[in-house]
Amino acid sequence: MRSILMKRFFHHSQFLFLLLPVFLFLNAVDEDAIAKKKAAEDFRTNFVATQISTPEQLGWTGSEKKCKPGKVAHDTYVKMLARINYFRRLAGVSDQIVLDSSWNKYAQAAALIMFANQTLNHNPGASMKCFSEDGKTGASTSNLSLFSGIAIQDMIADEIEDGSNSENKDCGHRRWLLRSNAYKMGFGATPESYAVRDFATNDELKNDTSSFHGIVPEYFAYPFKGFVPYQVVFCKWSFAIPAGADYKLATVEVKAGDKTLNCSVVSRGTANYGDPTFIWFINGLKQDFDYHYYDMSEKRTAFVNLGLLNKKVTVKISNVKVEGKVKSYSYSFTIIDPDEWK
Questions:
Q1: How far apart, in whole angstroms, are the C-alpha atoms of residue 42 and residue 46?
Q2: Do the bridges between strand 226-229 and strand 325-336 make them parallel or antiparallel, or are there none, so unpaired?
């Protein structure tokens, strides 16, 4: 009798053992589905729903003719802050940025100068239209952008993308927006310009009692971990080490599934913007304005053709020198179509 019971117990145990991998697989699939839905909802809430579609929606109270900086509507501040924190979340740095009212004032004055002169200048002169000392301070400590027409919808995103021309090869705008120890910023806009104040002057820092209370990661990237909507993945990818690194001999390998993608290194982190950052192109991806910004069907097709959509993407950065030691880093994420996860 005992031998029969033991035999039956063995059979049941074997059956459960065979099912266990299936249960684990189903659990992993469920967790992935939940995470994808969460990422898609984050995109819809903090990117799609924060879009400013027309200059009127800014709620700007200023005047170019009167050189009055004014302000933008409270809702505009809320939307642009949500976008800033959304992109920081995707990069793996603190997403607890707040807007400082005094920083908003500097950014607004800088945006007015850029609008009045239809140029971008981090050191505006007194002869420029609507010049002010606040505007000069704001211009020297802010990301600056001009836009026209439908491009207003891409505020903040255009600075994360940071174009591919020679002036933006170091991704200065992206690096300031994603600075790992940032805790406050300022925002200002007009119907054809905007400014994001990213850092303070040395004189301000002496009297500033506020400070960063978040966690600075060992490294971060854009795009980085988890599930990332293809709409906010651009042709330039970046990797940063806040403590400092020498990327002179660094190499990058990107795989989508088992397929190795062609990459071209464009910056080795020598420019002094935010955190030391290594930057490369994914060959075959265009700038977003080549996809007409908001008609994303062509962009989606490009991601499918490159094997980037719904595949695990693994990035390996090798030969990075940190504190005298040569190190390698690896991370992975999946690019998704959020419309498939509602």
A1: 6
A2: parallel
Distance of alpha carbon 264 from the chain centroid: 20
Residue type, 299: K
pTM over 0.85: yes
DSSP symbol at 296? T
User: With left for phi above 0 and alpha for psi between -120 and 50, is residue 57 left, alpha or beta?
Assistant: alpha
Query: Please, which residues bridge with residue 252 across strands?
Result: 317
- 301-312 burial, b if ≥16 CB within 10 A, otherwise e? ebbeebebbbbe
CA distance 77 to 196: 11
Q: Which H helix or E strand runs over 265?
A: strand 263-267
Looking at the DSSP bridge assignments, the partners of residue 194 are 145, 189
% of the chain at pLDDT higher than 70: 90
Token digits of residue 4: 């029969």
N- to C-terminal Cα separation, the chain: 56
Q: Over the stretch 269-304, which tens digit does the pLDDT of each residue have?
A: 888 889 999 999 999 999 888 887 667 899 999 999
- Residue 220: φ, ψ to 5°: -150, 175
In three-state secondary structure terms, 298 is helix
